[in-house]
User: Which sequence fits this backbone?
């Protein structure tokens, strides 16, 4: 089985790429040999956009998900549109870039939020221009204004955001790198991707991020919810 090469892992700013169709599933999943589409996972939705078929038609992609064995990435299109593709076709994969960039900014901001609130993370979700993290915090006493100020102070540092890979064994030797209790770094390939915000944060993550924190812009903590005796949900939103 030919695996899909995830180009977004190496360059989250690629908006499109040429690709070859490997197969089309009965459910309307177009499998490509390479893609710029982020695949749904880790609290970040799968990308949407379009596939330009060989006849010039642009077929909307409604979501992007893994195959059962997680080796291939399926670009979901309407079942009636799947007939536009067959194995061997040359296509162009084109992101809804504005949507992706919003998610990149939010995802990076959530990493900063995990620094402002250095507690175990029990859950999280990313949307277009907003997101949230759940924290294992016994006591409340959280203030939206205070958290907003601390978060934007980190954004204003305009710190570089980079990634690198370590082995599973290196991660096992440094368990403190893992902040999330509910979502564990993917294992099986023998290596784990780390995302570093220079001088601020370092943690395993497979998502897409901006290159510098200054790209995030102004962030607002919009709500703090009690979701149990020791669980607080903190919601953020991009100001513009």
Assistant:
């Amino acid at each position: 089985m030919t695996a899909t090469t995830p180009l977004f892992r190496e360059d989250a700013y690629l908006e499109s790429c040429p690709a070859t169709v490997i197969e089309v599933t009965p459910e309307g999943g177009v499998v490509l040999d390479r893609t710029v589409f982020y695949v749904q996972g880790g609290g970040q939705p799968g990308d949407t956009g379009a596939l330009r078929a060989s006849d010039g038609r642009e077929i909307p992609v409604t979501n992007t998900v893994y195959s059962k064995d997680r080796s291939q990435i399926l670009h979901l299109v309407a079942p009636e549109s799947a007939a536009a593709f067959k194995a061997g076709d040359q296509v162009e994969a084109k992101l809804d870039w504005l949507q992706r960039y919003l998610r990149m900014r939010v995802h990076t901001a959530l990493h900063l939020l995990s620094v402002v609130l250095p507690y175990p993370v029990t859950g999280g979700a990313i949307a277009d221009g907003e997101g949230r993290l759940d924290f294992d915090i016994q006591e409340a006493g959280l203030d939206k204004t205070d958290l907003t100020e601390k978060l934007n102070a980190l954004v204003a540092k305009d710190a570089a955001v980079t990634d690198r890979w370590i082995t599973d064994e290196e991660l096992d030797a440094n368990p403190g790198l893992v902040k999330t209790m509910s979502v564990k770094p993917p294992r099986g390939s023998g290596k784990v991707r780390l995302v570093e915000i220079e001088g601020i944060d370092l943690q395993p993550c497979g998502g897409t991020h901006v290159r510098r924190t200054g790209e995030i812009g102004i962030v607002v903590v919009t709500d703090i919810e009690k979701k149990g005796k020791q669980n607080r949900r903190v919601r953020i939103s991009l100001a513009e």
In short: The longest strand covers residues 16-24.
